[in-house]
Amino acid sequence: MTNYEQLLRVLASGVDFIIIGGFAAILHGSSRLTEDLDVVYVRSTDNIKRLAEALAPLHPYLRGAPSGLPFLWDAETIRRGLNFTLVTDHGDLDLLGEIAGGGTYETLFPDSVVVEIFGVTCRILNLKSLIQTKRAAGRPKDFDALAQLEQMLEQQE
Fold first, then answer.
1. Which of 22, 24, 75, 145 holds its CA 20 to 30 A away from the CA of 125?
2. What are phi and psi of 103, to 5 degrees?
């Protein structure tokens, strides 16, 4: 089970990121459960270094990869990759350098809002943009969530 509080505390210790996906939907008031934490992170050299260092103690490993497959978690691995679906000591974490329907951290930043969760101040994607990215992802589970999210947006407006 994912420990959202602990993952957020680790990330908020110096990493620039925006919460997206199911956990962002929950923070907006959705009743749907999610099994992982999805974040878009800044791809700058400094932020990648901070990300690698922050997560290293949590033993990140590629989710779904065969056990024992060599995997080195460091800044160079992150720099050479883009999107990582990981399992960590605190649960599942999706680190995304770019997302469909939204782009990068820099393009999503104006559509994010600051929230405090578990005593941690962080950014989440606003509801309108969250709906847009879920629609663009095109997965059945995202389409299932859209009706509730759109109703929530209607109530906000």
1. 75
2. 90, -140
> How confident is residue 2, by pLDDT bands cut at 50, 70 and 90?
very high
- Mean pLDDT estimate for the chain: 93
Buried b / exposed e across 28-60, counting CB within 10 Å, b at 16+?
bebeeebebbbbbbbbeeebbbbbbebbeebeb
> In this prediction, what percent of the chain has a pLDDT beyond 70?
98
**Both structure tokens of 9:** 């505390």
**Cα 70 to Cα 49: distance, rounded to the nearest angstrom:** 20
What is the distance between the alpha carbons of residues 99 and 49, in angstroms, rounded to a whole number? 21
Alpha helices (H) along the chain: 4-11, 21-28, 45-55, 75-80, 105-108, 127-137, 140-156
Measured distance CA(61)–CA(57) in Å, rounded:
12
Q: Which residue has the tokens 């109530």?
A: 155
Cα-trace Rg, the chain: 15
Tokens in use for 12? 């908020």
Using a cut of 0.90, tell me whether the model's pTM lies above it: yes
Alpha-carbon dihedral sign for residues 77, 81, 86, 92: positive
